[in-house]
Design brief:
- With about 150 residues, the protein is an alpha/beta fold.
- It has one domain: eRF1 domain 2 (Nucleotidyltransferase, domain 5).
- About 35% of the residues lie in helices and about 25% in strands.
- Helix 2 crosses helix 3.
- The longest helix is centred in the middle third of the chain and has 22 residues.
C-alpha cells in the first residue's frame, strides 16, 4: 500500500480497549492539526473484579480424571465489546457522510475486533491501519508520531 497522507479533513481513530478518540485533521499534509470530534470511554475492570466463580470441571472421556475449563477473561471480552461499539459509532458517522477517509490506530487485538465488526461502508473508507497504542498520548504527540509513521 502506498503511503497515506494526512490530508485535510481525514479522520483518525485512535483506540484501545477502554478509550477511543475520533480525530479530524484540520491542518494540512505538512502541518497536521488534530481536533477531537468525539471521545468514547468505558471502564474495564480487571478480570479478578469482574468474575468470582471458579472455572467449571468436567470428567475426561473414559477416565476417572477431572479437567478444568479455561478461566473466562472478562477484560478481553470487555475490550471486544467496546471495539464493537466503536465500530457501530463509525458506521453511524460514515452513513451521515461525516468522513471520506479513515486511519485506524489501535493495538492488534482491538484492531482485529474492529475489522470483524466494521460495516462495509466504513471498511471502504479505511486507508491505513497502524497496530499501535496511542490513546494516552497528547494530540500533538499523535500528530508527530502519525506523520512519521504514515509517511515512511
Amino acid at each position: 500500500m502506498a503511503a497515506t497522507r494526512l490530508e485535510h479533513g481525514i479522520w483518525i481513530l485512535v483506540a484501545d480497549g477502554e478509550k477511543a478518540l475520533f480525530l479530524r485533521n484540520e491542518g494540512d499534509v505538512k502541518y497536521p492539526n488534530f481536533e477531537v470530534v468525539r471521545e468514547m470511554k468505558e471502564e474495564n475492570l480487571p478480570t479478578r473484579e469482574q468474575g468470582t466463580d471458579q472455572p467449571g470441571r468436567f470428567f475426561d472421556a473414559g477416565t476417572p480424571n477431572k479437567s478444568g475449563y479455561e478461566e473466562t477473561d472478562w477484560q478481553r471480552i470487555g475490550k471486544e465489546r467496546f471495539a464493537e461499539k466503536v465500530a457501530e459509532r463509525l458506521y453511524k458517522s460514515a452513513h451521515r457522510g461525516e468522513f471520506e477517509k479513515l486511519i485506524i490506530v489501535a493495538p492488534p487485538v482491538v484492531l482485529g475486533t474492529l475489522r470483524k465488526a466494521m460495516h462495509k461502508e466504513v471498511a471502504q473508507r479505511v486507508v491505513e491501519e497502524l497496530p499501535k497504542t496511542l490513546t494516552n498520548h497528547t494530540t500533538w504527540d499523535m500528530e508527530a508520531l502519525l506523520k512519521k509513521s504514515v509517511e515512511q
